Amino acid sequence: MNADAVWIQVDPERVAGALHEAAGKVNAGESDIVLSFSDVRRIDSKAAGAFEELARAADERSAQVTLRDVNVDIYRVLTQLRLAQQFRYVR
Amino acid sequence: MAENIASLSDERIAYLEGLVRQGRTAAAVFTQYSQEDVDRIVKAMVLAGLSQAQYLARLAVEETGLGVLEDKALKNMVATEFVYNFVRDKPSVGVIREFPDRGLVEVAEPIGLIFSITPITNPTATVLFKCIMAIKTRNAVIFGPHPKAWRCCQEAIRIMYEAAVKHGAPEGVFTCLESPTIPDNNYLMRHKEVKLIDATGGPGAVKAAYSSGKPALGVGAGNTPVYLEKSAQLDMAVVDIITSKTFDNGTICASEQTVVIDEEIYDLAIREFAGLGAHICNEKETEILGRMVIDPETGYMRPMAVGQKATDIARVCGLRVKPDTKLLIAPIQGVGRKHPLSVEKLCPVLAVYRAKSADEALRVCIEVNRAGGLGHTAVIFSRDEELIRRFSEAIDAGRIIVNSPGSIGALGGIYNDMVPTFSFGCGTGGGNSTTDNVNLYHYLNIKRVARRTPAHMWFRVPNQIYFNVNAVENLRHFPSAGTLIVTNPLLEQMGHLDLVRRCIPAQTAVRVLAIPDAEPELKVVMQGVETLNLHKADQIIALGGGSVIDAAKLMKLKYESPEADLEELAAPFLDIRKRVVQFPAEKVNRARMIAIPTTSGTGSEVTPFAVLIDKERGRKVTLVDYSLSPDVAIVDPQFVMSMPKNLTADTGIDCLTHALEAGVSILASPYTDSNAMQAIQMAFKYLPIAYERPGDEEARCMMHNAACIAALAFANASVGVNHALAHAFGARFQVGHGRANALMLPHVLAYNASVPTKFMPSPNVRAYVAHKKYAQIADLLGLGGDTIAEKVKNLVSATEQLLDRLEIPRSIADLGISKEEFERAMPDLTRVAFDDPSWLSNPRMPLMSELEGLLWSAYRGRSPASRASVSELVGAERLCV
User: Are A80 and B28 a contacting pair at CB < 8 A?
Assistant: First the structure.
């Protein structure tokens, strides 16, 4: 994560949208993205699918995606979907 | 199975992968849900299912052509309302059960993605049931319905899904295979993302589930025997059987298949059946029915009969029956291929058998049960509790239904308090993993959070201890009609016996048994028991050293409990509260035991131990139980004033070893510590005086008390490695117990103060403190030192100096034992020492190699200048600091 990283504050009401937005930025050439989950308590199936899309995009374009303040429940979802290792985590 | 999967097209595989992806995502998302979330969703689903019960029943009957609309509607209601009633208050998220007294907590974890196969016979009810279970437990399900019940199942799944998602369930939580095929099922069963297979259906589906290598709940066919016994309430039984067997045209796999009726009530029962709408087949009709309902090739029922009305079956078979016939009853004479109707018939066809006795009835029920119904369900109608018990033990069935209908009874929650279900576990008899009525707990991984069990501690000592000079006078306070004094000849000669006799109340009949001054043999114990029985003694006085007191303890045990098997009671144990062999609680005689020690060391007067020697096998066995502790101890120094010097030294060191080992034992407590520390102080101060000035009354008195006080400590905290080594070495080389202890003592102190190679695996060990406690002892003795290491070293040195003052040999070699002889004995010594239970409370768990190392250290001996460093004593051991 550097000072030029794209910062996205994730709105709990539109988690999937924020993740799609991040995936779009990665596909557009951004190499360093930070998504802040500080307000997000839970993700739904759409968001889980969007996480998969973002992970795939980041992998293909060697971009670094950092998730900030992800709670343990969401981290467990990512673990079960085998996505947890695709992202960096900071508090 | 692999070949089946190979037949799937790429498009089909992509479709199946899509279902898995949806389910996996939903299951992962579902892990975030709370109990309140799932309970809210479940309630909404149940209400949705209830409101559509009749609609779904109609769909099922129309699509499958099986069963009865009204009954299927009832089944759908049971699958929602009754199941909800069972699960509504049951926690299924996070902590689900707590057992505070056991320190256990159960935490529920969802399984993930489940692949669920549902049957044609109970299609919608099974789907409703499984949907509710899945949501309650936060799992996602891919349903694979029976192809001939697909539409109704798909509709049931849709109703459940929409209600669930509307109330917050993750999208994709339920999906339903379209146009399901066996290769589809096999593909999903083997998919790595599918965590559990729940197969309710025919034997093929169940077998495939278990063959997949995945955890599976596979529940299948039954063949329910019914014993209609002569004491039964016949009218109720007949109604129940008809109700059950005609319910949904007999499609529930728990429904009655063969009713075995006692001869005494057979005719009456048949008349009752006939009177309530059953058609009783004659021999010819039975033969036709058997041929038409059961396929003679396979021995299984023909699909065309399943779930059909009795009149329709009769028509197809060409039987003339009344239009209102509910049930076709076919008398059979046996079970097996020659009697085709003895197998499962999921239709209103019921076999009956006339039994001439209860034994015959049970035998036939067992045969029916074995003819395709192992592990499933059995029914008995009887008022004979003993017979119900015999039936329950004899039949291999997960559900034994008593005095109620089989099919509806097995569903649970209606006629009994079993768990409501639409999936019957059939146990190993049916090739299943459970005998339960499958329920929410089978859809959970339950984690056990186990807290450390608090160490249970105790301090148990004799009721009364009298001490100091003339304590023996207290014998006057113990009235007795008949007393046996157990002693040895030498003490008799020394006048100790007379001293005791003078203090016994005059009216007491006294007998004396003088036994050899050696560890007791069984024959000596039995001699004492014989004397006690002969004189009906109510009191035993043991006057002597540890051997005499131990002998008296065992005499008392065998006198009070003649059935006690001393050999068995000596069985090893790890925890006295969990021991395999319990000491007898029932007593045919009762005798008070008073112990008067004549040496100052063993402490047997207050301990729960007794040693028995088995000369034939050349070994000692130690019996341990608090019931062996004497009732009264009289610690009177008069009896030790004339102890010879070497005995004073050896028994005194035994006392000191008891206190030092109890002090660092893993069973040590503040109660035992206070005694151990006091005894150590007294022994260090008074033992050399008693040894050097045998006539010093104060020193004798204090050492006599010290021995008893040390014993109070080790009676509750036990001893350690020192005793294990001393027992092995002393027995092998005939070296007295105290002396053997002395030879090991400095080496064991150093060993226990070092960093353990292995810690003792015991909840009593909360930290490694042996070295600190040795330092505490050094402080107590005023030995000086600034660090723990220095203090431990000073304690070892002080112990060595004490041994020198007592003129105890410095080494095993000094006893004249050659190195070669010792080397030869070493394998046995380490083996015996390791088998000795004494070390089980040692602060370090000894390795065999360490026991050998200690024995060699003792062979080489303690340092000549009494200034040995601890590390020198134990080689490369690292001292705990």
Answer: yes
pTM given for the model: 0.85
Residue A40 amino acid letter? V
Which residue in the block uniquely carries the two structure tokens 């993740």? A19
User: Do A48 and B31 lie within an 8 Å CB cutoff?
Assistant: no
Q: How confident is the model at residue B1 (pLDDT cuts 50, 70, 90)?
A: low
ipTM comes to: 0.91
Instruction: Collect contacts of B819-823 with beta carbons under 8 A, ≥24 apart.
Output: B819/B859, B822/B855, B822/B859
Distance separating alpha carbons of residues B512 and B537, to the nearest angstrom:
11
Say if the Cβ atoms of A81 and B24 lie within 8 Å.
yes
Spell out which residues of chain A touch residue B22, defining contact as CB-CB under 8 Å.
45
- From residue B120, alpha-carbon distances to B45, B54, B123, B525 in Å are 22, 17, 5, 75
| pLDDT above 60 for B878 | no
Q: Write the DSSP symbol of residue B107.
A: E
B712, pLDDT greater than 70: yes
A 62-91 near B (Cβ less than 8 A): 73-74, 76-77, 80-81
Out of B212-221, B307-316, B373-382, B647-656, pick the least confident: B212-221
For A39-54, write each residue's pLDDT tens digit.
999 999 999 999 999 9
CA B779 from chain centre, in angstroms, equals 46
Scanning B161-190 for CB atoms below 8 A from A yields: 170-172
Which of B27, B31, B170 is opposite residue A44, by nearest beta carbon?
B170
Q: Which residues of B416-437 are buried (b: 16+ CB within 10 A; e: fewer)?
A: eebbbbbbbbbbebbbbbbbbb
- Does the pLDDT of residue B872 top 70, yes or no? no
Q: Which domains, from first to last, does chain A contain? A: 6-90 (3.30.750.24)
Residue of B22, B31, B171 lying closest to A77 (CB–CB): B31
Confidence at B203, pLDDT banded by 50, 70, 90: confident
